[in-house]
Design goal:
about 35% helix; 3 helices; about 80 residues; alpha+beta
């Protein structure tokens, strides 16, 4: 079982750029990408060692298997997710 977490902040331009990419990937691969605002869920900052937003973390069996900091292109994100489906 995989989980895909997308960490964002309100007003973050790169996060706004990442959001439509995430929606496209969700549709293409029939997956759910969980949007998480770490400022509202502060425990996630330490738990996932967040330094920047956007950050996408892919978990398999609750272990981090892939991590992207900054905007990640659709093709690269899809390729990473497909490895764990």
């Amino acid at each position: 079982m995989i989980r895909i977490l997308s960490f964002f902040q309100e007003g973050c331009m790169a996060c706004q750029e990442q959001d439509p990419i995430n929606r496209e990937v969700e549709k293409t691969l029939s997956v759910h990408i969980e949007p998480i605002n770490p400022l509202k869920e502060r425990f996630t900052i330490e738990k996932y060692h967040l330094r920047v937003t956007p950050t996408i973390v892919i978990l398999k069996d609750e272990q981090v298997v892939e991590r992207f900091e900054g905007v990640v292109h659709r093709e690269q994100l899809e390729e990473a997710i497909k490895k764990y489906l």
